Each structure stands twice: as C-alpha cells, then as structure tokens.
Amino acid sequence: SFYFFIALESPDFCNSYLRSEPLPHGVVTLSSFLSFFGWVFLVTTTLVWMLKREKAPPPDDEPVLGVLETYKQLVRIMRLPALKTFSLVLLTMSISFSACDSITWLKLLGAGVPREKYAMVTVSLIPVKLVLLLIFSKRLTGERPMEAFMKIYPFRLALNLVVVAFIWGTPYMITNHDIPVYFYALMVIIYGFVMISSYTMFVAKMAFFARSSDPALGGTYMTLMNTLNILGFSWPSSLMLLLVDPLTFQSCSTDTENTCSTPQLTKACAGECVTQVDGYYVLIGFCMVFGLLWLRWAIPTVRKLQRKEPEEWKVKTRRQKELEKSQFL
C-alpha cells in the first residue's frame, strides 16, 4: 500500500497514466488515503464480527482462555528454551540486509530516480510476489522448512554486493536527469532477485512458525513469532538509518576545514560538498561481515531447533499438569 500511495499521490504519475488533463496534484492525499483504509478496516472488522460464528469447543478441549490467562501463557511460552534461541535468530537474521533494504531506495532517490518510477517498479513486481507465495507455500511445508531459508540466505547476502554495484554505477547511468530504459530494466531484474530470495525466506519462516506452534495456542504462538520477526526487521533498519549520516564524511571543495556536517556548514560552503567516505558503503560492509559470522552460528543452531521434538515447543496446560499429577499419585 505504501508504494501504491507514492504513485497515486504523485502528480506526474497521475497526469501521465491516469488523467487526460493534467492537474497539479495527485489522485489521493495522505489524509484521504489513511481515511479510506481506516474505513475499509472498520467495515471489514465489523462484518467479520457480525457474520462469523465460532463453534463451541468440545467439552474435552481446553477451556477458552481469558485475556489475563492468555498473557500468562504467553510469558510461559517465552520462557521455553527453544523459543528463546529462536527469538535470538529472529531478532538478528535481518541485520545482514538492513542497510541494503532501508537505505538503497533513498540512494536511488538522491541520485535522481523519481519516487513514482521507483514505486511503479515495486508495484509491477507484486504479481510475481503473489505467484511466488503460491508456489513456495506448497513446496516449503515439511519437517525442515528452514533448510530452504538457510540455503537462500547466502544468495540474498551476495545480492547486497550486486545492489551496491548498481548504486555505485547509478550516477554514471543517469546524466542530466535523463534515465535510460536499461536502467529501469536493471532495477527490475535486481529488485526481482531480491524479492524472490526475500519471499522464499519469508515463506520458509512462516512454515516453521506453523510447524513449531502448539495447536492449542496456535494464535498466540503465531502472533508472538510474527512480532519478533517484524521487530527483527525494524530495529536494524532504524539503526542503519540513524548511523548512515554520522558515518558519512564530507569536505567542502573550496575549504578543506569545512566538513559539511551540518546544514549551516553546507550552506557556508562556496563550492560543493564532496563525499570522502559514504556511510552507506561502510554499513553495507559491516552487514556483509556480520552476515557471514551470523551464518556460521545460525546454520547449526537452526538445524538443532528443527530437530527438536514438538513437546519442546509446547507449554504444559493445566489439564496436562493435572493428568501428570494424577498419574504420579
């Protein structure tokens, strides 16, 4: 939806593809976009509440947990040794790609690529994403779905270098704001490979989530694992965005004492600020090294997690504890 908004909010995109007469604004604004989807969520949630009926659980099943009991179970789940280890995997697996995923598109915009064109490239690959999900969702379900994840991970890590080479060559391909067709073709191909590898790993993770979840508390397990997965993607990206400027070093072409490190110094430069060290490349290098070290630790760790028995991923319910106590007595 983010890339749809970028395209529909752009006057250039709307005038070129959606309108017969040009206007100085896009089809949507941020407020109208958020308002529309707010109503969509409200209506769909209300319809589900009104029309969906759940069957009463059989008397032999576990009783339906209340809010407080659900959170107590969540705490017990988080204390499981297997889940503690897997949480560490989820919270660190995206560091290797964080600089590439969070900063690359900003580098493209800074090089002169219109944001609506970037959005079009992304949106055009959505059908590919849907097809991949349909294909891999059937092929990656099994006893060891994370094997595919670990096989794709080095390929995705190597794509960091391909993306960096593309970003480095972008200023040489774009001259006087004239972007050749082959540039967009390269961008589609590279982003396509990134998306294929990313969504293959995504489906593998979802399959492992489903395999490891306790059926009696499946929703709680899936919510917890998805939360950790999203957090594992979000915090490294935020950190990379925070570090890219402090790790970028510039100097004024007419005054070497001027580091162009603040807006005031940049404005005071009579010439132009020349980048001596680009923090983007520094962070990509760090992510590559981290990714190689992470793989060395993660491969045996993930395989060990996959070999664990289903009982090691479950918390004991009250009924199970009562049965064990009665058997002991």
Automatic annotation (TrEMBL):
- GO MF terms held by the record: acetyl-CoA transmembrane transporter activity
User: Primary place of residence?
Assistant: membrane
* Cellular location(s): Membrane
| Any one of the GO CC terms | membrane
Task: Check the record and name the Pfam families matching this protein.
Answer: Acatn (PF13000)
Question: Zinc-finger as a keyword?
Answer: no
Keywords, ordered alphabetically: Membrane, Transmembrane, Transmembrane helix
Its membrane topology? Multi-pass membrane protein
> What's the protein called, per UniProt?
Acetyl-coenzyme A transporter 1
Tell me the organism.
Graphocephala atropunctata
